[in-house]
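This section describes the prediction task in plain terms. A model, or a person checking by hand, is given the sequence of a single protein chain and must write out its three-dimensional structure as a string of tokens. No templates, partner chains or ligands are provided. The sample shown here is typical of the held-out split.
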Amino acid sequence: AFQSAKLCMSTQADSGVQYVLMKPIIDNLQNKYSPKISINMNLFESIELSSVDMFVTQGNVPYPVIVPTFPSFTNDSYIDYGSTIN
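The expected answer:
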């Protein structure tokens, strides 16, 4: 699924178009797996985020990038799926 989505998104130059194409797919996955997802909202809300982007490399190795870049599939920021853990 990741590879086919990545291929689909790589053919679109505009990220706005990418989000429009991926929205129904993401919504479908959220609906399908929502009963299996549990979220501890207290713990989730306690996460402190910084505004500093991190990009890590390792020197003197054949593959210096520690973690491959992960594409953004959606601009949806609502957690409207899953169940809450109290």
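For orientation: The longest strand covers residues 38-39.
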